[in-house]
């Protein structure tokens, strides 16, 4: 869920007294405005009079607020996000259980947009975006997001939903990897269903979620970035599944084309599992993609985990070797 933006910071309020009584739960916050909603979640901005800052609050939609499974999932996301304290993750300020809205967590509100919106404008030939985000900058953005993944992997957490929509590019150069809602923690019982075709939305609904980078046809959402082992529904995933998904992101930022998109979900999954993609330089010969980039992306996208890069740090070093 995206939609984070910025508001002017008014420092004149820093000298005011604290409220006499601090309300509990979400009653502490004022000026709620909806930013985005998706699935069972709701993202809103609001003002915290204690700290004097505008923040973002993620909670459940009313129909899901009392569902035990959804509450557990959101609380788990909140705790995973809060414990991954890294420059490329969003800080969590508060986690609570409101009488009206149920489980929620409060985060830093950041300005900017998701990486996919940037890639879409490049695909449309927007000259200002192309100038602001040359290949070198696009590679830097992905490498920064991968730093968050390397940090998470070192702490036993796999993201499992790495995609440009979850990479937030701030107005001041910051890069934040968002949405740890389906993260897997090694050594813990997995509360999430394995992401496989049988638990996805119907094809007609899923394929209408997003347009393609180039604006033609429809774009399957998250399934486009799954690793072969995710498509198979494996429960023994490790960091190499995030490496594959990051490789798909790398392909997109190079070629400005989708890596595995088929005519439908079945064909997309078949491409992911069985068909090696065309090297980016061949897919988009007009993009002047260096040969080294082909080597890096094709290794990251190997079907067998053992044939890929074996750590995110290794992939980061390889991304930064592209010139």
Automatic annotation (TrEMBL):
Record Gene3D superfamilies: Phosphorylase Kinase, domain 1, Transferase(Phosphotransferase) domain 1
Broadest EC class assigned to this enzyme: transferase
**Chain intervals for the UniProt region annotation (Disordered):** 212-232, 268-292
Source organism, top-level taxon: Bacteria
Q: Which GO terms describe its molecular function?
A: ATP binding; protein serine/threonine kinase activity
* Residue span(s) of domain Protein kinase: 29-323
Under Pfam families, the record lists:
Pkinase
Q: Which SMART domains match?
A: S_TKc
Q: Which InterPro entries match?
A: Kinase-like_dom_sf, Prot_kinase_dom
PROSITE patterns assigned: PROTEIN_KINASE_DOM (PS50011)
Say yes or no: keyword Zinc present.
Answer: no
Q: Give UniProt keywords alphabetically.
A: ATP-binding, Kinase, Nucleotide-binding, Transferase
Protein EC:
2.7.11.1
What is the protein name stated in its UniProt record?
Serine/threonine-protein kinase PknD
